[in-house]
Amino acid sequence: GAYVVTFKEAALRTSVAELSGLSERLLALQLERAARAQSAIGTGVSLLQAKARGRLRGAARRRGRAAVKRLALLQKRRTFLLGRRALDADECHDLSPVPCPSFADYMDSFLGGVEDLVDELKLRMSDAETQCRGDLDGLAARIARLKHQSDDSGVAFATAVAEQSELASSRHMQRDQVRRLSQEIGHSAEQCQDQLGDATEAMCSAKVLARELAVAAEGFVGACEVTDWVAGPCSEPCGSAGQQNLTRRVVYAPGDSPVCPPLEMTRKCNVKPCPVDGVMGRWQEWSQCSQACGGGTRSRHRQVLRRAEHGGLPTGETMQQEQCNIQPCDQDCVLSAWTSWSNCSKVCEGGHRARVRHVLRPALGDGGCPEEHDPQRHQSEPCNQEACRASPPLQCRSSLDLVFALDSSGSMGEAGFGAAKNLISNVVGRMAFVGTDGGILAQVGAVTFAQSVTQVQSLTSDSAGLLASMKVAAWKPSATNTGQALAVAGQMFEQRGRANTPPVVVVVTDGTPVSSYILRSEAARLKDQGIRLVFVLVGDGIKRRTAEAWASEPGRENVLRAHTAAALQEAA
Length: 572
Description:
The protein is of the alpha+beta class and about 575 residues long. It contains twelve helices and 22 strands. It has helices spanning about 10-15, 20-35, 60, 65-75, 100-215, 415-430, 465-470, 480-495, 515-530, 545-550, 555-560, 565-570, and strands at about 5, 45-50, 90-95, 225, 230-235, 245, 250, 265-270, 280, 295-300, 305, 320-325, 335, 350-355, 360, 380-385, 400-405, 440-450, 455-460, 505-510, 530-540, 560. The strands form eight sheets. The protein has a six-stranded mixed β-sheet with strand order 19-18-17-20-21-22, with helices on both faces. α2 crosses α5 (about 100-215) and α6 (about 415-430) packs antiparallel against α7 (about 465-470). The longest helix is centred in the first third of the chain and has 117 residues, at about 100-215. It starts with a strand and ends with a helix.
């Protein structure tokens, strides 16, 4: 069966039984870590290890599942072993007492874990609220677009109905005009026919009379013969002021003084209304596109200022439509070309070099985009595989800004804190701070962190001053505020960090932080700024997989472990 760690005192177990299932499990994890980290027997909080009846659910123990999911499964077990008030003697045995400073540190981590769960739930609620608000805004925008389209369609329909009505009215008017003109033309034709008949009869009578006069009286000269009238151009194309000249010539004139009719005449012409061209107003602005992508339409309108009359040029269209936003709604992101290969991360013992592709344009809609460490965006290859030489020790001559963050909490212990200080001394002793040309190669700073953070030394190239400051740094047994330590380290780079110089933070710690949420947030922020994070784990209180999520990529190079303080001392 499974084993859990709980308090030896029944009163404390009774208090634990009143906690929620999630809090119970978090407390059990911290007690287990405290017991595992304690190697020396001394005065402190008494614990015992109890054997559970049966096993925990497989889904709660399966590797790779999120912690919240595991805890949610355990929450259903309201009679979890940790809360049992009475334990049989054969079910448990005593563990080494945990010193009070160390125990207080682990309890602070327990409290921080509960607060992280609360913050995570609040964050999920905020994300859900933001998602709902975004969906509502999207629906509201779509409703507004549809309403705008409906308004445009209504305007277009009303315009079309008005135009149809005007065209029907104009058709009726033109039909009436044609009917009246046809009647007038018919009546005028009859009159002209009668006048032509009268004129023909008069002409015949005049010719008969002329022949008779010629026979009866000698010397009668007779009438002239003239051509038909030739009409000249009209002075006006329309209206009532047009004048037209008509002329004709004499074909035959008998005698010396013939009596001829007039050879010129003026008459009115083009007596009709002048045509009036239609006039259109200016186009309005284009409406919004009906779709943000995938091909929509937009329209614009203009008004008819004056209708065409009497054969004038007709008016044009009152509405135009065109396609817009024809680009696909779902587009994959656009990536840049590969960058150049980086320098090797290590000078020996197997490092790596990498190259990346940046996102030039994010994905749209349901388009995809590879993750930051996807092979399409991130490639790495091994380098410097040869073993490091043992003697003489290698010396770092790289340009570097380095900040050490040392855990001085209660769980680290005074011996562990001293081993961490010795680690800094030895590392600094193998660094070159000044180049051959006299320029500064490296700057090193240091902070210690427990419940609060102390800046021991700002970034400096004075190795002696750094070691002197580290020598007086004191152990402060309290909680493990790793997130705040990363925040202070980031501020140190902002204050005295150098441009174009790689920044690195080395965190030496042994226990879980007060707030994993704050640590994750600060670690992500520093990594986004291009700061390399290296974690040196002392003991087995932190899982390597957890630390690799905090550290820079690749985790196998940026997470180191010393199983004891003595091992850390030897590694230094």
